[in-house]
Design brief:
This protein is of the alpha+beta class. The protein has a nine-stranded antiparallel β-sheet, with helices on both faces. A hairpin with a 5-residue loop joins strand 5 and strand 6. The relative contact order is 0.22.
Length: 243
């Protein structure tokens, strides 16, 4: 069975929106400081099809439905739903932010990643807010705006090498098809990483963990930093245009 792509893509986009920093959660625009990595540097640190393996394609942002296409895409978990709704329709401030969605064949699996650079104090607040939302969520239902809905149970897990890095797995079924999603967040000084992985017809976390570790390692290598570090990346900042 092939699930409707809007539901699969919306679920992945909504999960990513919930734990994305900066643009998703700032009420007013904040000018980036001079020592933040630029948009170009963040883009270089994002996963690409070459990183995740054969069979994946990058999905243009215009082709991937986001939470804004359904103002209430999630229910049943107030903390995560509030963060998703906060993202919907809110213009992004001028702070370095990039994201990507990579789809396997027929959209299975899906990998989504976002990187945001912002003031250390603001990033600390954003990380704590997203962490609390993940910890306090036990079930959540996603609605594609059609008759298709799916309810996931939410369980804390460890996706990468750091035990303290917040992450959860979501398990649900739709018309007898097993669905899983994995969400993780990480901090690299002044850069926050939000990661989402979505798959059907399987329950193993192995591939999600591999892709998450790949994402973390690429940020560390590209920006010259360490996962969980409070100090800014050492890669020299450039004058890339913030979005």
């Amino acid at each position: 069975m092939h699930l409707p792509r809007p539901l699969s893509a919306l679920t992945a986009a909504a999960l990513l929106a919930a734990v994305t920093f900066g643009p998703a959660h700032l009420a007013t625009a904040v000018a980036p400081t001079q020592d933040l990595p630029s948009t170009d540097q963040l883009t270089s640190a994002l996963l690409t099809v070459d990183d995740v393996g054969p069979g994946f394609t990058e999905v243009p942002s215009t082709a991937s439905p986001g939470p804004e296409e359904n103002p209430t895409p999630a229910s049943g978990c107030d903390a995560l739903s509030a963060l998703i709704t906060m993202h919907t329709g809110e213009p992004g401030p001028s702070t370095p932010h990039v994201e990507v969605e990579l789809d396997g064949q027929d959209g299975n699996p899906m990998v989504a990643e976002a990187l945001t650079a912002e003031d250390p104090a603001k990033l600390t607040t954003d990380v704590n807010t997203a962490t609390d939302a993940l910890k306090n969520c036990h079930t959540i239902t996603f609605d594609a705006g059609t008759d298709d809905t799916v309810t996931f149970t939410v369980t804390p897990i460890t996706l990468g090498d750091r035990q303290d890095a917040p992450a959860v797995r979501l398990d649900g079924t739709l018309a007898g098809v097993q669905l899983n999603a994995f969400v993780g967040i990480e901090r690299f000084g002044t850069v926050g990483l939000a990661f989402a992985f979505y798959q059907r017809d399987g329950d193993s976390s192995q591939l999600a963990s591999v892709q998450y570790r790949t994402a973390v390692a690429k940020v560390e290598h590209t920006l010259g930093t360490t996962a969980g570090a409070a100090t800014p990346p050492t890669a020299p900042a450039t004058n890339g245009t913030a979005v």
